[in-house]
Amino acid sequence: MIFYKTLTDWYLQNKRDLPWRHTTNPYEIWLSEIMLQQTRVAQGMPYFFAFTTAFPTVFDLAAASEEQVLKLWQGLGYYSRARNLHKTAQYIATELSGVFPENYNELLKLKGVGTYTAAAIASFAYNEAVPVVDGNVFRVLARYFDVETDIAQAAAKNEFSALAFELMPKDNPAIFNQAIMEFGALQCVPKSPDCGGCVFNDSCMALQKNKVDQLPVKSKKLKVRNRYFNYLVFEDANSNALVQKRTDKGIWHNLYEFPVLETDKEEGFDCVNEYVQEVYGKEESKPIIYEYNTKSVLHKLSHQHLYIRFWKVQVEETLENAIDIETLRSFPFPIVIHNFIEKELF
């Protein structure tokens, strides 16, 4: 009870003014929670406003094309979230007549909705007493109660959920969930938290035992894969370019890109030129290539580091299916390609 009261008092004085905290509309709460998965609030906020403006209801989102959704999502990353968002909107609009499931167990059945998101919607929209456990909650509880359970283990979620449920007031779970997540986001931060100015500095076990920087325990370092992309930016007789959709499963599924040569290591002019001449060269005309960036652009994903170079490929003829540069702007691209288009082609 003391933990809850201290926590909520802190929250009411320090909480950020976020738009999804002013509503119990499950559609807007669902949008915000999907967007904030693996995304900082400051980065996600403009996208929330963009989506609620373009698609004010779940019916509007369901009626949009996937390309419209991906274009609006451009730059937010983890694009499977956008595709699942769109499919779930269509399911809710057509199969559930636009009415969101009203409890945790039913919400879990929605595509793209896991235990955390289902708990957040159930708690914030319907005041259901289910704990919301994210990285912030793991950190706060592990430090305050000196819990050394490895949060990378599957069983950890159940342990921390049970602890959060025990602390949660069953008549007002929403404010508890908001408060503990906000406390982790603003006060009990991962590195160098201000423990001296913390409202729990007289009762936090990690602080008393000088273990704040050791908790929560998390093993299994993610192995990062390096990939090397050489994008071929064609310019034909009409100054048009070629683009293609990434249909393979994996990164950037259903987004657009220029024709790409992926190599095992960083390659220079000779390798790329040889490939271009072999694949696109003709007896009567040879493509001329130039490098846009002599040094690779490093684009970091959670599990991959992409080393990207862009190459201008000039051809004398008119290319079939090539499109003008202005039209490119309407296509959903990975943000690294979008930035290149805006910087180099306009």
Q: How would you describe what is shown here?
A:
By secondary structure, the chain is an alpha+beta fold. It has two domains: 2-214, Hypothetical protein, domain 2 (Endonuclease III, domain 1), CATH 1.10.340.30; 225-344, Nucleoside Triphosphate Pyrophosphohydrolase, CATH 3.90.79.10. Helices cover 44% and strands 11% of the residues. It has 15 helices and seven strands. The chain has helices at residues 2-14, 26-35, 41-54, 58-63, 66-73, 80-95, 104-107, 115-126, 135-145, 154-167, 173-186, 205-208, 269-280, 325-328, 335-344, and strands at 225-235, 244-245, 256-257, 260-263, 288-291, 297-300, 304-314. Strands 1, 4, 5, 6 and 7 form a five-stranded mixed sheet that branches. Strands 2-3 form a two-stranded antiparallel ribbon. A hairpin with a 3-residue loop joins β6 (297-300) and β7 (304-314). α2 packs across α3 (41-54) and α2 packs antiparallel against α8 (115-126). The longest helix has 16 residues, at 80-95. The chain is elongated, with a radius of gyration of 25 Å.
Summarize the structure.
This protein is α+β, with helices and mostly antiparallel strands. It is built from 15 helices and 7 strands. The mean pLDDT is 95.
Range of strand content = 5-15%
The total tally of domains equals 2
Overall strand count? 7
Oligomerization state: single chain
CATH topology of the largest domain: Endonuclease III, domain 1
How would you summarize the topology of this molecule?
Elements: H1 2-14, H2 26-35, H3 41-54, H4 58-63, H5 66-73, H6 80-95, H7 104-107, H8 115-126, H9 135-145, H10 154-167, H11 173-186, H12 205-208, E1 225-235, E2 244-245, E3 256-257, E4 260-263, H13 269-280, E5 288-291, E6 297-300, E7 304-314, H14 325-328, H15 335-344
Parallel strand pairs: 1-7
Antiparallel strand pairs: 1-4, 2-3, 5-7, 6-7
